[in-house]
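Supplementary Methods S3. Complex input for the FE2/S2 (inorganic) cluster-bound model.
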Amino acid sequence: MRKTPVTPVQVTGTVLTTRRVDAYHALTVVAPGIAERFRPGHFVAVAVGGPTTSMLTRRVFSVHDVKPDYGGTVEFVFAVRGPGTAWLAERRARDPLDLVGPLGRPFPLPRDPVTCVLVGAGHGSATLFTVADALQGRGCRVDFVLGGDSADRVFGALRARRMGETTTLTTEDGSLGMRGRVTDVLPGVIADVRADAVYACGPLETLRGVTAVAVEFDIPVQVAVEERMACGIGVCMTCVLPVIGDDGVTRMVRSCVEGPVFRGERVRFDDVGTIPFDALGAPGGGTRNVG
Ligand SMILES: Cc1cc2nc3c(=O)[nH]c(=O)nc-3n(C[C@H](O)[C@H](O)[C@H](O)COP(=O)(O)OP(=O)(O)OC[C@H]3O[C@@H](n4cnc5c(N)ncnc54)[C@H](O)[C@@H]3O)c2cc1C
Ligand code: FES
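Predicted complex, serialized as structure tokens:
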């Protein structure tokens, strides 16, 4: 059963530490209120550019870690991509940082102590460690499959090796682990560990592939999508994607509030970026009675 979202808060946090982790930057921010509400899979929306900026929209990041220190800290990990992340990469300890969170729906966790494979690609791996922690707290076995374009873009390999029963790494250029993608090795890992469930975060293409593998093995798969988000709080509709509901009807749902975590087989990956003609309320699709 899906849990009710927690109420997010806006916090003027303080940067506690900054560090480089290969191709990524990690920012730990004192953000009481967010840390205590956090559950694995939540994300935060960060104001970038300072008080006079033209960068009006917040940038959203998965939470990599939370700690009780200093009343509650959250850490997120990012690669520099455009002006917002470039500004964040210049933040230093004691700088103020405006955050809203925790946002989104977290990963549902199994009731029983089952075997779970956690699949991450690029910075998508960052969100998996709090999931792993929660799963292990329930007695679940955790195995990792992490990948990236190159060795410096595989996030969290060392931590995965410490936490996971097994860790399989892939890089597209072969500089670390097996050459290829996470989806190339996933069938072997699922079979070897006799996985009961899969959790994944990464680019849409990866999530599509991971879902296809899990469906082939007939095991549940939870994916955290990263659709472009302008508001992160359900107002602007930039983040919608077609998802099949319990009633079999496709709806355009907001991945910031109804997601970012979805059952993989419910996401119509082939139709993301469009409004499928059979989606509820689609232009020209007519109306239907859904009870
Ligand atoms: C739920 C979620 C979790 C994310 N977690 C992480 C993370 O842990 N680490 C990380 O490096 N990145 C993450 N991203 C992507 C991150 O939000 C973008 O890289 C960032 O917003 C880019 O901002 P920019 O100004 O540097 O780049 P620009 O490309 O200049 O951004 C311009 C605008 O597009 C939006 N945008 C651009 N790329 C993305 C994207 N991929 N997803 C969503 N919005 C985007 C920005 O919010 C901004 O409004 C996540 C995205 C989502 C939706
Ligand atoms: S990002 Fe605005 S509704 Fe989802």
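The chain has a mean pLDDT of 94. The radius of gyration is 19 Å.
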